[in-house]
Design goal:
Layout (H helix, E strand, L loop, with lengths): L3 H8 L3 E4 L2 E2 L11 E5 L5 H4 L12 E3 L3 E2 L7 E12 L6 E6 L5 E6 L2 E6 L6 E4 L9 E10 L5 E2 L3 E6 L2 H5 L20 E4 L1 H4 L5 H5 L2 H7 L3 E4 L33 H13 L3 E6 L3 E3 L3 H5 L22 E3 L5 H18 L3 E4 L7 H14 L4 E4 L13 E3 L1 H11 L5 H14 L5 E4 L9 H4 L3 H12 L4 E5 L10 H4 L13 H17 L6 E7 L4 E6 L2 E6 L5 E3 L7 E4 L1 E3 L5 E3 L4 E4 L1
Parallel strand pairs: 14-15, 14-23, 15-16, 16-19, 19-20, 21-22, 22-23
Antiparallel strand pairs: 1-2, 1-6, 3-4, 3-6, 5-12, 6-11, 7-10, 7-13, 8-9, 8-11, 17-18, 24-25, 25-26, 26-31, 27-30, 28-31, 29-30
Helix pairs in contact: 9-10, 11-12, 11-14, 14-16
Length: about 575
């Protein structure tokens, strides 16, 4: 395989035009001019904002790469620009490449639907060579759907000739092996706990009382959302967000004492499980004593005023990681918690907003205290794996499976999104697979059909990576992201659907009996018409029916039905029932 940079130097001569300006071969970015229009009422599709002849003269000018200026706006926005290609090298394909979209995109070229992409921070491309007439101006329009924080096109957009998609997509991070992760986490099933909501009392003791049930579910690792005292100044809701940390060296007295927390850690370890704490190194509460003691540790505007990371996060003050004294404080604090309480690692909030250098230093320091310490990044950027983190979020698969379950995506898009991971992440990277977590609306609300919701979860739980259950998911808890994060809303264990818990426990047991982190994984079916997906993982063949129709099939040499909604027909064929999943061997 030829080195792409050499090909670029020797053979690629592509000219671009944006408006009337012809770009040089070295300046291949589609960076100007772009225009933007917000679509809060979702009228753009009906109004034909993607049409070639639509008047966009009143749209605002914007920069790409970049995010939209209104950092309080979540929803849909439209981008448009013009492209022109000349002298496309003979024998080469031509790709329209997006380094990153936040979060989902639908793409039109010359008024025709061209493609879709789901999930934040996944590099992707469309083969566009046969759509561009040499020297002709073409109209490119995108509808971006953002689901949290300022959205837009934070990565570069460009045209790039290529021969092999591996040359096109593979980044530097994917060419190396991920640093070794602790052995204990490679096959771990993760359970996210919001202590405040877990029991009626919302205490560490309440969680201790629930540990046997959690263990029996098939859980190996408990991730506790922040347990620190919560700031009162600028607080959101009645009890505030646990991510507004008032004191890094204390626990929330509403949950119990530090001794109670240490007892919790001991009880978790006694059941052969591990525990990680959720820590926030990007910001603190406004009444954290650090703000008075070290104002220079905080982000300030031109007037010298301390500011939040963005307008929506007005309950927290942003930390300035350029300050070496702050970095030293944070690292020492992380070491203290491991030494003092014997926790096994951390889940780090908004890890992509913290410099990689801090993560690398923190991991090395924590390994001095506990050699097999584990770091989980709330983020998806591949380089996090090369800077201390053992595992990242697979937001791409979450977005895909939710959209597929809602009828807004095709199986081939899910398959393609997964395949793109190979070109992005260091080899052997651990990826957290989930259909729900505390940052999103509950999956039972997004996917109200019980069977379909379970099928979506099983799809994640049986694939490669590490499955996650968010406490309450196993009983079909419904609800929105807000107000759950800012109010006390205990889980209703008595009236929950325990049948869901039984299915989840069964699936996790199958996973533990038949699969390991080294089991081979590959998709075998992604049928858009029938809404069927299937993959082979280790010795298991797993089928998922996202339609309301029965799917009849044969599986030569694999006719041992292990679990789920698969039935054997009189003719020895198999049928997968509507909205069900099944496992055969």
């Amino acid at each position: 395989m030829k080195n792409f940079s050499l090909l670029l130097l020797l053979t690629i001569i592509v000219l671009f035009m944006s408006g009337c300006d012809t770009l040089t071969p070295e300046a291949q970015l589609l960076d100007a001019p772009w225009v933007l229009k917000y679509d809060s009422s979702r009228v753009g599709l009906r109004a034909g904002w993607f049409d070639n002849d639509y008047d966009r003269s009143q749209w605002e000018t914007t920069e790409v790469p970049g995010v939209w200026a209104d950092d309080e706006y979540d929803g849909f926005a439209w981008y448009a620009t013009q492209i022109q290609a000349k002298n496309i090298p003979a024998g080469y394909n031509l790709a329209l490449v997006f380094d990153s979209i936040d979060d989902n995109a639908v793409v039109w070229l010359d008024g025709r639907l061209f493609g879709k992409q789901m999930g934040y921070n996944i590099k992707f491309f469309f083969d566009i060579g046969d759509k561009l007439a040499d020297g002709k101006v073409h109209h490119l329009v995108l509808r971006i759907e953002d689901t949290g924080g300022p959205g837009g096109i934070p990565g570069a957009v460009y045209l790039e000739p290529y021969i092999d998609e591996i040359d096109l997509l593979r980044n530097e991070a994917s060419k190396v092996d991920a640093p070794a992760s602790p052995e204990w986490v490679k096959d771990a099933v993760i359970y996210e706990v919001f202590v405040r909501q877990q029991s009626q009392e919302g205490t560490f003791q309440g969680l201790i009382n629930d540990l046997d049930r959690i263990k029996s579910l098939g859980i190996d690792l408990l991730w506790l959302m922040p347990v620190h005292p919560i700031g009162e100044e600028n607080r959101k809701g009645a009890v505030g967000s646990p991510y507004s940390v008032q004191d890094y060296y204390a626990v929330n007295p509403d949950m119990g004492s530090m001794d109670d927390f240490k007892q919790l850690v001991e009880e978790i370890h006694a059941r052969d499980m591990h525990i990680i704490l959720d820590f926030v190194l990007n910001h603190s509460s406004w009444d954290n004593e650090l703000l008075d003691q070290h104002p220079d540790w905080y982000t300030q505007n031109a007037a010298g005023e301390i500011i939040p990371p963005n307008a929506d996060w007005h309950d927290v003050a942003g930390l300035n990681h350029d300050n070496p004294a702050l970095r030293a404080y944070l690292i020492e604090m992380l070491q203290w918690w491991i030494t003092e309480t014997d926790i096994d690692g951390y889940r780090f909030d908004v890890a992509e907003l913290v410099p990689n250098e801090l993560w690398a230093d923190a991991k090395a320091a924590c390994q001095q205290v506990k050699s097999d310490v584990f770091f989980l990044a709330e983020g998806a950027k591949p380089d996090l794996h090369l800077n201390g983190h053992d595992m990242t979020y697979s937001w791409n698969m979450w977005e895909g499976i939710i959209q597929l379950s809602q009828g807004n995506a095709d199986p081939s898009e899910i398959k393609r999104s997964y395949e793109l991971e190979e070109f992005q992440y260091p080899q052997g990277s651990l990826r957290m697979r989930f259909s729900e977590n505390h940052d999103k609306t509950r999956s039972a609300t997004l996917i109200p059909d019980r069977d379909l919701n379970l099928t979506a979860w099983a799809f994640m739980a049986l694939m490669d990576g590490n499955p996650l259950i968010y406490a309450g998911q196993e009983i079909g808890t419904t609800g929105e992201y807000v107000p759950a994060l800012f109010e006390k809303i205990p889980l209703d264990w008595e009236d929950g659907d325990m049948g869901i818990s039984k299915v989840m426990s069964d699936v996790l047991q199958i996973r533990k009996e038949h699969l390991t982190s080294s089991s081979a994984f590959n998709f075998i079916i992604a049928n858009n018409d029938r809404k069927i997906m299937a993959y082979k993982h280790g010795e298991l063949l797993n089928f998922f029916n996202f339609s309301a129709d029965t799917f009849k099939f044969s599986a030569s040499g694999m006719d041992n039905i292990i679990y789920g909604g698969i039935v054997e027909n009189p003719d020895s064929s198999l049928s997968l029932l509507p909205k069900q999943f099944g496992v055969i061997k």
